[in-house]
Amino acid sequence: MTRLLHLSDPHFGTEQPEVMTALLAFAAEQRPDLAVLTGDITQRARADQFRRARAFVDQLPAPVLSVPGNHDLPLFNLFSRLFNPYGNYRSHISNDLEPLYETSRLLIIGVNSTRPQRHKNGELGERQIERVSRLLHSARSQQLRIVIQHHPVAAIEASDQANLLKGHEQVVPRWIDAGMDLLLAGHIHLPYVRPLSGSGSRQGWTAQAGTALSSRVRGEVPNSINLIEHSTDGPFHSCSVERWDYAETSRSFRLYSHTDLALDRSV
To answer: Taking every annotated instance into account, which residue ranges of this chain make up the domain Calcineurin-like phosphoesterase (predicted)?
Structure first.
């Protein structure tokens, strides 16, 4: 079995120490094979915030694969935003803005959906879209095929339609037709799992994570994270997404929901 810990939007600079302690205890107990961090690692892309994030990442009991979010680009330092927007991210988190992780059972493709010229909205270029499609087409049948980015591609609240990746209507079917199983994202601090459709009958999924650590929770939704499990038995795949929420009463993460994903191996 492969186990992934999906974290998003910790917003270091607004992190809550007691939640961070609980998350590290949860990770130590679950012992994931890999942690995936889908952006907004910091609140204002400052070096001290990235240093705190790095210290947290180094305490996780698994390698970490990450992509930047819009908050990981300087907002008020216009010179840095224009000429070195990912400087602090590269120095403290990763020099690779679009990482690739592959094992015999797993393919994870990182995509940088941020744009320095945009305040918060996400967008991809044709070369990025084609790179992902090409990698998905080359995946092996036993691999769980995941794309990670910061911006969501499906909304459950009308107010979040404006937060969706620009051009998602064209991008998502291309990636599903190419073999994508699951897209992981964040940005809106609202966790959910939803099906996605290709141009034909093939289906994929998206899983949103809430904010892992920040005090900037959304409404009544607490800090939350996702735990993804995948296993194969010959040609048969089993995959699930569990949402775990922080409970103040116990100061620990508790299971909120479990969703089994039907994976389509027609591609």
So the answer is: 3-190
3-state helix, strand, coil in the chain (%, to 5): 25, 30, 45
Residues 226, 22: Cα–Cα separation, whole Å = 14
Q: Which two tokens stand for residue 22?
A: 């609980």
Q: What is the pLDDT of residues 176-216, one digit of tens each?
A: 999 999 999 999 999 999 999 999 999 999 999 999 999 99
CA distance 205 to 261: 8
Render 100-130 in DSSP notation, one character per residue: EEE-SSEEEEE-----TTSSS--B--HHHHH
Beta strands in 57-191 (DSSP E): 64-67, 100-102, 106-110, 144-148, 182-185
Q: Which domains does the chain have, with CATH numbers?
A: 2-261 (3.60.21.10)
φ, ψ dihedrals at 214, nearest 5°: -75, 155
Helix and strand element counts for the chain (H, E): 6, 12
Rounded CA-CA distance 196/192 in Å is: 13
Position 79 scores a pLDDT of 61
pTM over 0.90: yes
Distance of alpha carbon 232 from alpha carbon 42, whole angstroms: 36
